[in-house]
Amino acid sequence: MLRHLMTAMFTTKLLFTPTAIIMSALLRDIETAANEKLDQPLRDYLNRGAMDDLTLRANREAFSRLRIRPRYMVDVSHRDLTVQVLGHTIRAPICVSPFGLNTAVHSNAELDTAKDQFGTIMAVSSGSRVTLEDIAGAEPSLHKWMQLFIYRDREVTRDLALRAQASGYKALLLTVDMPVLGLRYHNQKNNFTNADNRVNYEPYGAGARVADNATWADVAWLKAQVDIPLVIKGILTAEDARLAVDSGADAILVSNHGGRQLDSAPATLEALPEIVAEVGRECEVYLDGGVRSGADVFKALALGARAVFVGRPVCWGLVHSGSEGVKSVLEILYTELDNIMTITGCPTVASITPSHN
Ligand SMILES: Cc1cc2nc3c(=O)[nH]c(=O)nc-3n(C[C@H](O)[C@H](O)[C@H](O)COP(=O)(O)O)c2cc1C
């Protein structure tokens, strides 16, 4: 479908209309067009990382450095990009990372993303401007996970987790890489705050601050509070992957918060192999951070990720053209992954192996 549209746009010279740009261009064009709509403080808030952006850049550089080893003369006439994530089949191994956006970046971010016209998993941020119940009510068929933290008042953690479970969220995504906010100097310089995204916390007051005394014992405790799977987000070492699994984690999302927390943290693609080696036989491992093309998805899968999550590209799609933009971003990644799989001799996701890197 996308391919037909692209061909039609080229041949009918529609290439430079806004719709045509989004359907036919690379993700970079959507990024550029989205950023042109934002002023400097918003661009910085969305795009930049902590301190000197070392980890932000490292995420991209790690993907750029890695090459793909293609295998030819394989029957790739029928391809299947579907994959199972915690038992749920999705169209392709491409999911949506949680993000708390400022109203000025996009006025309807949560609900537009939740429309999910692509058919994947959306991780909803606890830092949204729409309650988790309202998102669930608006899009009951959306396959959603709820991102949360361990809070100073553990009852807040428990209550949020139970609210998510009661509202039909299929997993909890516990972010562990933010005992304190990373130093994002650009936001300070720009006098930028994101105070409008605490609606989920309204019932709780001061106890809903992220805890800086959380330990793996809290993970084991949280696991015991709910019946839905618990995924740990923000793991960057084999040691923590082991502790997470031993504390009851059902899956791990290798993440450095898109370079927004610890500057000098490893690129996620660099961290992935040691984590897969440590726990990959016991649980699913996912990755986010710097995924910008189907080739990037392929590389992460070849290194053992079950699926990837994308953050900023979805935000760019939103800023560009709302839910249509989100769909387009995911469709572009899908089309590129399908193309790469075809050229490398991989008709299924399972046929992508370490020998391809
Ligand atoms: C604007 C923005 C807001 C974010 N908010 C959250 C959040 O509320 N919770 C969280 O766990 N991660 C948050 N993240 C991190 C993302 O979930 C994800 O780890 C990161 O964006 C992935 O990297 P990528 O943007 O390069 O794809 C945020 C990222 C961005 C860009």
Structural features, described:
The chain is of the alpha/beta class and 357 residues long. The protein has helices at residues 2-11, 18-24, 27-36, 40-47, 54-65, 109-114, 132-138, 154-166, 185-189, 216-225, 238-246, 268-279, 294-302, 312-344; strands at 83-85, 88-90, 94-96, 121-124, 143-148, 171-175, 230-235, 251-254, 284-288, 307-310. It has a single domain (2-352), classed as Aldolase class I (TIM Barrel). Helices cover 42% and strands 12% of the residues. It has an eight-stranded parallel sheet. It has a two-stranded antiparallel sheet with strand order 1-2. Helix 3 (27-36) runs antiparallel to helix 14 and helix 11 packs across helix 12. The chain is globular and about 60 Å long. 47% of the residues are buried. Residues 1-24 have low confidence and may be disordered. Flavin mononucleotide (FMN) binds next to helix 14. The site of flavin mononucleotide has 24 residues, from helix 14. Glyoxylate binds at residues 45, 184, 257, 260.
